[in-house]
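Methods — Computational structure assignment.
A single polypeptide chain was analysed. Its primary sequence is given first, followed by the predicted tertiary structure written as structure tokens.
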Amino acid sequence: MEKLTFEHLIGYLPYGLKVEYSGIINLKELSDWKKKEPKDFYTKKGDEYMDWANSKPNEIYGSRISEIKQIEVYKKYILLSVGKKYGYYKKVGISQIKPILNPLSNLQESELMKKWSKEHSVELRYNKRLLLDVKSANCIDLIGYPLQFIADLYKEHYDIHNLIPLGLAIDINKLESEVN
């Protein structure tokens, strides 16, 4: 089985890649509880403090979505910082996340494809593989695809590494249908 690697993610990182990870999903509730802590020294010994301490909500774990905030590269591993407004960033390994990507099948009707078709006479065919017919020789690079087109695919978070069928990434369409 193939594993998600940093090489799969690196092209998406400058463009605010969102990932799914496991974390505490009731951070706002925990933050609000912490703000209600009695501040008075004498109160901490009394019933008011015990009532506050006993009212702490349980931490609820589940799937969370966040952009990658920070990357720490070490000799043998890489840590990614993810998280949101309430609470600290959580450090996770690459194996603990799933990037949220657009499948290539969405590309046919996208604004990106309309732009490239109009500006560079590019024709796209998708049948489980991306086939790009470039009619303008001035935008072809060494591998047969325009580099700017590849950069635009990364920018729009298209799954150019085929991670969704391997179960290493999440299809943004399925994620949106679960929310609705």
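Note: The mean pLDDT is 79.
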